[in-house]
Specification:
Structural class: mainly alpha
Number of strands: 0
Strand content: under 5%
Number of helices: 1
Largest sheet: none
Helix content: over 70%
Shape: rod-shaped
Length: about 60
Amino acid sequence: MRDMVNAHLPILLQLISTVSLVVIAFSATCISSSLKEISGKGEMAMKTSAMQASAFLRLP
């Protein structure tokens, strides 16, 4: 039993390491897309408020 565990332990540890790296990469991708979405929405809000301010200043 001990020999079997010793034989499979490096494979199991490598599998855990690989899965961890995949999860980290997926998380980074999700975070990146979320930040792009947030920054895009913030940019749109700034453009909208700038347009409203310029329209307000043009009123007689």
